[in-house]
Specification:
Blueprint lengths: L2 H20 L3 H16 L9 H19 L2 H15 L4 H16 L9 H10 L5 H13 L8 H10 L6 H26 L8 H8 L19 H22 L13 H19 L11 H26 L1 H14 L2 H14 L2 H15 L10 H7 L13 H9 L17 H22 L1
Helix pairs in contact: 1-2, 1-13, 2-13, 3-8, 3-11, 3-12, 3-13, 4-5, 4-11, 5-7, 5-9, 7-9, 7-18, 7-19, 8-16, 9-19, 11-12, 13-16, 14-16, 15-16, 15-17, 17-19
């Protein structure tokens, strides 16, 4: 490895480290800085900007913003709250189930924010450490991204693998089954083999004695459903179903629609805009208020992050394809699980499932020698896909921090060693089990 390569690696990881320190959209800013330094400073050609992924995020956020403004998200959260409060003893299983499916539906894990206070209150009422259901629920909201039909990560992965015979519905079928089962097994392990007794937590007892812990609150009876809330959810669900059916109809394995004039990515963007327009029109929304929703702000942040980080990753990878191909080909072929390890650590740094997928999967396809005629190793990529969800490792992700801040019992806390927080073990377990299941299920379904 010559001095130029070493300097390029330093720039790559230096930009990522700076982005992590800045947080939020700063991750994208630092990625753009890294591209400039690699190009103007080291003579590397700029990589490809992931426009398809960015446009899909923008269109999905456009629809979800309208859903939120119409009261649809509040309505979904209200349903989820009712489920949790009616079955409080099963909070460790129901909390991650709720956040998982909210993520699948909305295509963003930030929907978990609205459920965190409810999970805390229900757990306290049953003398269960809120850290247990919260940790599994936050992890479920992250891993659910790899199973959502409208998430940028799934769409990007489908775009990369469809030329090799992996249809959109097949990818979804594998990802949904393996990740959800993995989340439930993780919930069982955490419920069975960890201390769930809140009263035994010394930090909780200290906070309780000091008067810092509020008694469990009852269900908010003052909740007023907006007039268009149910209508907006119906429109959104119909739109999602249409997207999945259309993507299935144009897939090579089904081939109901031929020739394919309107591609899958275009269809997702188009259908999402139709959903947004329909909700805005039929629910009589004030479009000026759309940009004030929390969903719009988090969506813009996601676009900037993917722009910078994925562009930086593609710039570096394309400059070293021969070396990466030679190294990865021998290692991953001999030890397929190493791809999941690579995804895991990359997503820890890149802080985005979509950015990790966009940056690494093209290089992996080349490294494994996958072609339309040679698709034997495709299952390795699909099986390892869930590992791009390791956003919980560093305790700086918004939903993770939100859980820490909203748990007034103190059971959800970050230790002095940074990595010893309650999200780490369930997160590693969920990903490891998902990948293991993937290596069993993916070859059977392809």
């Amino acid at each position: 490895m010559d001095i130029y390569v070493i300097m390029q690696v330093i720039i790559l990881f230096g930009a990522i480290f700076l982005g992590v320190r800045l947080g939020g959209m700063g991750i994208g800013y630092a990625g753009g800085l890294g591209v400039v330094l690699l190009s103007l400073g080291m003579g590397m050609f700029p990589g490809q900007i992931p426009w398809d992924v960015i446009l899909i995020i923008m269109s999905a956020i456009a629809a979800i913003c309208a859903l939120q403004l119409a009261g649809g998200l509040d309505y979904l959260v209200r349903i989820a709250e009712n489920i949790l409060r009616k079955n409080p003893k099963h909070i460790n299983y129901l909390a991650p189930t709720v956040t998982y499916f909210l993520t699948i539906l909305a295509g963003t894990g930030h929907t978990a924010f609205s459920m965190i206070p409810v999970i805390v209150e229900v757990a306290k009422s049953e003398n269960i450490k809120p850290s247990v259901p919260l940790s599994i629920a936050v992890v479920a909201s992250q891993i659910g991204i790899t199973a959502s039909p409208v998430s940028a990560a799934v769409v990007a992965m489908s775009g990369f693998l469809e030329p090799f015979g992996v249809s959109y519905p097949t990818l979804l079928g594998i990802c949904i089954s393996t990740t959800f089962i993995a989340v439930m097994i993780t919930a069982f392990i955490m419920s069975t083999f960890t201390n769930n007794d809140l009263s035994s937590d010394p930090v909780y007892q200290e906070r309780l004695a000091a008067g810092y812990v509020a008694p469990p609150r009852e269900k908010n009876m003052d909740f007023h459903l907006k007039p268009g809330a149910k209508k907006s959810v119906l429109i959104f669900l119909i739109g999602i179903i249409c997207i999945v059916f259309y993507a299935t109809a144009i897939s090579k394995n089904i081939g109901i629609i031929k020739p394919v004039i309107f591609g899958r990515n275009d269809a997702i963007v188009g259908f999402m805009m139709i959903i947004a327009a329909a909700i805005t029109f039929f629910c009589k929304l004030d479009t000026a208020q759309l940009v004030n929703t929390s969903t719009f702000k988090s969506g813009l942040s996601a676009c900037v992050c993917v722009l910078g980080v994925a562009w930086l990753g593609d710039t570096f990878v394309k400059g070293h394809i021969p070396e990466i191909k030679a190294m990865a080909s021998s290692m991953v072929t001999a030890y397929p699980f190493l791809l999941a390890v690579a995804f895991f650590f990359a997503s820890t740094l890149l802080y985005s499932q979509a950015a990790t997928t966009q940056a690494l999967v093209p290089a992996v396809i080349l490294a494994l020698g996958i072609t339309p005629e040679n698709t034997g190793s495709v299952y390795i990529i699909i099986a390892s896909f869930a590992a791009v969800s390791a956003l919980f490792v560093l305790p700086t992700y918004p939903t993770l921090l939100g859980a820490v801040q909203m748990d007034d019992t103190g059971s959800t806390r970050i230790g002095h060693l940074v990595f010893n927080h309650p999200f780490f073990i369930p997160g590693v377990l969920a990903i490891a089990i998902s990948v293991a299941l993937g290596f069993v299920v993916a070859p059977l379904m392809l």
